[in-house]
Amino acid sequence: MNMNAVNFSGAIKTAFERRLLVRAQPRLVHAKFGVPARINQMGSYELRRYEALSAITTNLSEGVTPDELAQPTLTQLTVTPLWYGAWMGYTDKLQATAYDPILSEITSILGDQAGLTIDTFIRNAITDGATKDWSNAVTARGSLAKTTDDVDFADFIFQLAALQTANARGVIGGQDYAVIASPYSWASLMQDATFKALFQYEAGASPYRSGAIGRILGCSIFISSNARVYVDEGAGSPACDPASMLFIGADAYGLVGLGALTPNFASLDGAGAGYANRTGQSTQPVQMILKGLGETGLDPLNQRGTVGWKAAHEEVILQAVFMRDLEHTNVGS
């Protein structure tokens, strides 16, 4: 009888690699452009703004004192941070027998979840609170139809005009607006002939070969798979999935945390403009809490431990006109 793999299947073992596969993580960019604040030993945070006065339209008459101006309008915003958190347990046996470094992996996974949670809350708040617009002059999300209302250059340039009309300043270096878009939104724009030609001109040498995204028309573009998509909320049968494209100016929204529980917004995403996803980097933007075996309470044999995260955070719209949310459909999605 010939010796083969079937006869000696028990002798053939699987090779294990302790280096774990990379988890795919979205770019968490929605916190990048907010005005941060931290409060200590207070439950709420108050922001105040005096509104600008309109221009004078009449000249002074000789010897006549003009009427007194009305007092400027005062706007007050009160923000109360909300608390968030989650945890996982582990046992002494799991820690002693698991082949993978299970405790560090649990910590990393929870850190990823914390970052995604904070980014998603901010994303939802600013897309809900921004000045809304819809592609192709449609007037409601439910009327957006695939193919007919796919985003194009005209939609993009109108959002910039609206921000400039509102006197919104750039949020990046005092010059550029920030644009947050999904990968499919970017793909749609790159199939618009006008946008494609302009992008190739402004992005420099060989932007298609290099895969550069970066900057165009005074906008720094950030691509994130966590950009908002409204599943089945568009027109059609089956209903299409409209997406959001955010155009953000300075002082459009604020982020308020509480003491040591304030999320570290700077750690959510360390890369510059462009790049659809970032991988291989643990995200731990909040307070991570590790309780070793026997530290969780009644545990006489030191059998149980926990890992968790906790944060206190809230977001607030400061100037809705300094931020535009273009809802649209995309080519092929």
Attribute tags:
single chain, alpha+beta, 333 residues, 5-stranded mixed sheet, globular, phage-related protein like fold, 6-stranded mixed sheet
Kindly describe this structure.
The chain is α+β, with helices and mostly antiparallel strands. The protein has one domain: phage-related protein like fold (Alpha-Beta Complex). It has 6 helices and 15 strands. It has a 6-stranded mixed sheet with strand order 6-15-10-7-9-8, with helices on both faces. Strand 8 (215-216) and strand 9 form a beta hairpin. The protein is globular and about 90 Å long. The relative contact order is 0.24.
The main pleated sheet reads as:
6 strands, mixed
Q: Terminal Cα separation, in Å?
A: 57 Å
Strand runs, count? 15
Please bin the fraction of helical residues.
10-25%
Number of helices: 6
Any idea of the CATH topology? Answer: phage-related protein like fold
Low-confidence stretches: 279-283
Alpha-carbon Rg, integer = 26 Å
Task: Give the arrangement of secondary structure elements.
Elements: E1 24-26, E2 35-39, E3 45-50, E4 74-79, E5 82-91, H1 92-97, H2 102-129, E6 131-134, H3 153-165, E7 177-181, H4 183-189, H5 193-202, H6 207-210, E8 215-216, E9 219-223, E10 243-248, E11 253-258, E12 277-279, E13 287-291, E14 304-317, E15 323-328
Parallel strand pairs: 2-11, 6-15, 7-9
Antiparallel strand pairs: 1-12, 3-4, 5-14, 7-10, 8-9, 10-15, 11-14, 13-14
